UniProtKB/TrEMBL annotation:
Gene3D superfamilies for this protein: Histidine kinase-like ATPase, C-terminal domain
SUPFAM superfamilies (UniProt xref): ATPase domain of HSP90 chaperone/DNA topoisomerase II/histidine kinase
Ranges of residues in domain Histidine kinase/HSP90-like ATPase: 8-129
GO molecular function annotation: ATP binding
Name of the protein in question: ATP-binding protein
Pfam families named among the record's database cross-references: HATPase_c_2
Alphabetical keyword list: ATP-binding, Kinase, Nucleotide-binding, Serine/threonine-protein kinase, Transferase
Keyword field contains Transferase: yes
Length: 152
């Protein structure tokens, strides 16, 4: 299994770093275009939620993004340093009474774009799994860690 990790301060402008991370991962691990769009939207939304709702824009708190690549799947893990939230009690943004609400669609989107979504640590950690065809990655093992503390 291949693994890459980055850490970013909770600044909205660091979404650019996450987008670059996903682009580089697509090229490095040969992720197919058909799931690349889903990954880009779901992972940037999860990081955005971690920055906004989890860490409440506190630049002294970090968001941790990890990527794990296996022969048949890629998993992105996003973790913040916030208080967490009740991910089991969310409004349905497609319900008629919620259609006019300006927010509340992020987790709905994430759940529909990723093949598997799992929350842990009281909602401070979310793991998004995307299935690959077996030929998309090779099976060599690598670990890289990159810190972007001064990214913005």
């Amino acid at each position: 299994m291949k693994q890459v990790k980055i850490q970013i301060p909770s600044l909205v402008e660091n979404i650019r770093v996450v987008e670059s991370f996903i682009d580089n991962s697509k090229d490095t691990f040969h992720i197919e275009d058909d799931i690349y769009g889903n990954i880009m939207v779901a992972v940037t939304e999860a990081v955005n939620n971690a920055i906004r709702h989890g860490n409440k824009f506190d630049k002294d708190r970090n968001v941790y993004l990890s990527l794990y690549v296996d022969k048949d799947r890629v998993k992105f893990e996003v973790e913040d340093e916030g208080e967490g939230f009740d991910y089991t009690d969310l409004l349905d943004p497609t319900a008629p009474e919620n259609l006019e609400n300006p927010g509340g669609r992020g987790i709905f989107l994430i759940r529909h774009l990723a093949d598997e979504v799992e929350f842990t640590k009281d909602g401070r950690n979310v793991q998004l799994t995307f299935m690959l065809s077996p030929a998309e990655t090779d099976e060599s093992s690598e670990t890289d860690t990159v810190s972007t503390e001064n990214a913005a």
